[in-house]
Predict the structure of Coproheme decarboxylase.
Amino acid sequence: HPNVPESLDGWAILHRMFRLDRRRWDALDAPRRDAVEREAGALFGALARDADADLGLAQLLGHKGDLMLTHYARAFDALGDVQAQVDKLALRDFIEPLESYVSILELGLYEHTAKIHAELRDRGLKAHSDAWNAAFDELLADAEREPRNAGRLWARIPHRRYVCFYPMNKKRDGADNWYNTPYDERAKLMLEHGKIGRSFHGHVTQVISGSIGFDDWEWGVDLYADDPLVFKKLVYTMRFDEASSRFGEFGRFWTGMQFSVAQLGVFLAG
Ligand code: 76R
């Protein structure tokens, strides 16, 4: 019987939220503004075109920030380089880091882990023996190569106008402790969760990233849509679903509009 569900892991992700000092930016003379903007645009453009990285830019609403950079990197360490590169930009004199979040894109495998266990038992392998572990890794690698999974693990940041990011936990509180809830019950709840999610299929693209061991919450949730109302309806609907109503704990929400690197000047001009 499995207890810990496996996951497939893709992009390393760094979210950074900044405040833009618009009054100081506007006070710069035009040639200097152009130069700063060109330098930032060159780096952002290179990151957005890189096969081993990606960059999302968003104008945030409210006091929790003005600009969100979402960095993807194939290698975890590369996030460090990207962070340093951004910090070396002249633009950094005008944008102040407020928040950040480190995570790795993941596909949860509740059903699939149970299937793998059943298959290995059928093969007569002794649980967690060397033979079991080797076969387990092979079946997991098969799942990772499946085009549907591989495509999602390494999908680029969706080019949808609106983005919403928030971190969340699964509760560990008395009777509502996700981590000592029996596997089958968790699997059933995740199945239900997935069903509700799929009723929004096409209207929203969700990116779930795991941050246990990396950051203050357990998962990061990025939602992308062409209509901001979809976020409100989806998150509200999920609140009634047991996986969220009973076990979900949520951090702060950051909401805004994505823009392309070519639109950086428009964002900065305000
Ligand atoms: O990946 C899949 O599509 C399979 C089903 C699925 C899993 C395993 C799925 C589907 N999710 C999964 C895992 Mn999800 N999801 C959230 C939130 O606000 C809230 O209440 C919760 C935040 C939203 C809005 C959302 C949307 N999901 C997870 C996990 C990992 C849990 C674990 O492993 O214990 C978390 C934390 C999480 C949270 N989810 C979907 C969606 C949507 C829209 C879908 C359907 C996607 C589609 O098929 O179009």
Summary: The chain has a mean pLDDT of 97. The longest strand covers residues 6-20.
